[in-house]
Every structure is written in C-alpha cells, then in structure tokens.
Amino acid sequence: MTVLTEQHISQALTSLPGWACEPQGLHRRFVFGDFVQAFGFMTQVALLAERAGHHPDWRNSYKTVDISLYTHEAGGITNKDLALAREIQRVAEAQVGD
Fold it and tell me: What predicted TM-score, i.e. pTM, was given to this entire model?
C-alpha cells in the first residue's frame, strides 16, 4: 500500500467538499439536525467501513460527527482513505443536515 503525495491528496480533495488533510489524516466534520440523524449516519458509515476493512477514527458529540481517515499500517494517507472518504461523502449527501 502506497502513501499518497501531498499533490495527489490535494487534487483528490477538490472532489471531496469539506474534507481537509490534517496531521491525523483526512478529516471532515459533519453536523446534522439532531443526535438521531448523526447516529444514523455513523451506523451507515460503520457498515461501509466494515465492508472495506478500513475503519475511521471518529468522535460524536450530540449532532456533530468528526471523522479522520488514515492508513496506520502504511503510515499515511492512501487510496483506501480516499475511497472511504468518497463513500462517506455519498452517505452524508443523502442525509439531511450535511
């Protein structure tokens, strides 16, 4: 698994609104209408992550979900992170409150 260059990551982020490259990996904060919407979103993301065999670092506080993606075994951001970010983005766009 290859760690992506900053240039590759920057280019990929142009199609992932709200996502940023931070020291802990790709990061995005999602804010929903309430806790139930946020939890429903997390449930959908958990199923995606399990299928992909790639799990996010995340935090939930009431209606806010913070997600960071980083491929620990590679020591950086890989295509696995970008692929999961795209799937998470798709789920978020289908939810009210993205």
Answer: 0.93
